[in-house]
Amino acid sequence: MRPVRSGARLLLSGVFLAGGARALAFPGQLEPQARQLTDLLQPDQADPRWPLEARTLVRLYGATQLGAGVLFATGYQRRPAAVVLAASLIPATIAGHASGTCDEPGERRRQQVHFLKNLGLLGRLLLAAADTEGRPSIGWRAGHLVHGRRRVRETTHPTRTEQRRP
To answer: Domains of the chain: which residue ranges?
Structure first.
């Protein structure tokens, strides 16, 4: 099953690698969508608490997607990388594919398709973040470690009734 998982990770990471590289190389193309997000986060431009520029946000988004995409594709820290990619996908989906802002029906349908595609990617990333590749999770191992020690103690140390018997 390992080749299937590796192949699936490579295929899934391709979207994020290409998108991250495009955002870093051409931040001006994504700036209008990022500006919508910065306007939501920082409505008062006169007194910014945290200076957000749309171009800086696009570059940060691109670097995040490219870095986490490489980690996810190579399988190194794949579960945290999947969480980072999922977290970066949420604001991008909201800012980039809001179908309520489109007047033309064809464009609205296209935005809805992209929105649903991103929801599908989000679901797959959440599955990838939870996937332990058949190995027991840390919680399961910790629980069985405690129970295993208890069983060992019970078998190696006699109980009180066994100590009293002659």
So the answer is: 2-135, 137-166
Taking only the tens place, the pLDDT of each residue in 10-41 is 999 999 999 999 999 998 888 877 777 777 66
Over residues 49-70, the pLDDT tens digits come to 555 677 888 888 899 999 999 9
Give the residue from 87, 98, 95 showing the smallest Cα distance to 122. Answer: 87
**Dist CA 102 CA 115 (whole Å):** 13
For 24, 87, 104, 164, the CA distances from 122, given in Å and listed in that order, are: 22, 9, 27, 62
- Name the pTM for this structure: 0.72
